[in-house]
Amino acid sequence: MPADIIDRSLRVDRICTNTIIAILVPLALSGCAGFAPSPTAQVTRVARASTIHTQPMPVRAADPPKPLLTDSGVRSIALLLPISGRFENPASALRDGFFAAHLASRYPRPLIHVYDSGETGESALTAYDTAIERSPDIVVGPLLREQLDALANQRQFVRPVLSLNYLDDAIAPPPLLYQFGLSPEDEAREAAASAIDSNLRSAVILAEESDWGTRTASSFRDHFEALGGTVLRTRRFSAVGDDSSETIRGLLDRRTINGSADEDIETVFIATGAAQARLIIPELRFYWHRPNDLVVYGVAASYDRSLSATDREGLRFCGMPVVLASASIGADPYGTSSAQSVGRTRLQSLGFDAYRIARAIRLKEFVVGTTIDGRTGALLVQDDGRILRRLSCSEVSDGHLQALDNSATATAYRQPTLTALEDRLDDGARQTR
Which of the given ranges, 80-84, 339-343, 369-373, has the highest pLDDT on average? Predict the structure, then answer.
């Protein structure tokens, strides 16, 4: 093997080992009561069960011993991530979560081969082709949409692929593709469902002028109307520099074109980040004739600890359960962490759930009608392979986040789950050890 390849491989392996010791072990063991092997034993197991490739590797003279066939039926997983370049930080967070789930697994663990997918469609194709040469049971990745589009257009999948993003809407999903990611559309759909469950039937939408704002607003509108609600109007504003006062006044104007009065607006959905939300929420209440009766929904990005108590009071949004886990007792998980820390937690949770989904797909148990209770939400798969997240919803009350009683993940979305399946497999796994 050329010296430069050996050197790069060793460097990455050292980084991975340090990450496992410092981050993955505490995260993995947090959900495993009574399971606390020594750090040395844990690192030894992971080093034996995982390999990282920063570029295509030559065939070795002697392949490593193959793992025993386990009850799970999963021998190896290929993980495609942009572990070098501009996306190194989000990729490393996602990888940490993936390996944390690997460590926390109660079953015999498969081999995990990590491939650097780079930043372009071409580099993702190369990483995929290299991974397929090793005949993995399932491929997880890529992370970037451009790379996923390239794979879907230029490769015929011969193994199941669990992507970590979603295809462009214009591309039909190919067979064997499952799409999973942290989409703001999921949060918008959950906000719409929460509003309907709260008996709020008429809404207006205020969205920033961006692709993100357009997609988020459209998801709220489509789902709200599908559930029987009425969207009276939508207004857009520039997220940079413009005064939004006139836009908000027009949004809340109760007169229709013929001069008669609209039915009362019961809720406003804002598709924007926290910087604009802190300006918009007070203006909404200022211009509305009954400010205390106006319910404001947003997305997780609309909330930030920097908002004053007045600016954020009454804001409702839906997010992943692992971030909002303490909301029911009045704690503020966003207020105890920086925005960067929360973002890393979200990506680690995505990686954690991706590992569980990958195993369930390989078992052919994650099918339509089945739900996985994950860290990113209650996870459901559609006929086209797209995985939806049902989220926990909260409201800012007296400056703190409080769980809403109609939070979707506390209702029928949780049934049925994979708990019984996993318990059955756990019994079989113990017999193989």
Answer: 80-84
Phi and psi for 428 in degrees, rounded to 5?
-70, -35
Other beta carbons less than 10 A from residue 368's beta carbon: 8
Q: What are phi and psi of 115, to 5 degrees?
A: -120, 135
The count of C-alpha atoms lying within 13 angstroms of the C-alpha of 223, restricted to the half-sphere facing its C-beta, is 20
Q: Of 157, 190, 192, give the one whose Cα is nearest residue 174.
A: 157
Q: Are 334 and 234 in contact (CB under 8 A)?
A: no
Specify the pTM: 0.73
Task: Write out the DSSP string of 27-58.
Answer: HHHTT-TT----HHHHHHHHHHHEEEESSPPP
Residues 6+ apart with CB under 8 A from 298: 191, 269, 270, 271, 272, 277, 315, 316, 317
**3-state secondary structure at position 144:** coil
Q: What is the Cα–Cα distance from 63 to 48, expressed in whole angstroms? A: 13
Q: How many CA atoms lie within 13 A of 63 on its CB side?
A: 5
List pLDDT tens digits, range 158-184: 999 999 999 988 999 999 999 999 989
Distance between CA atoms of 279 and 311, rounded to whole angstroms? 7
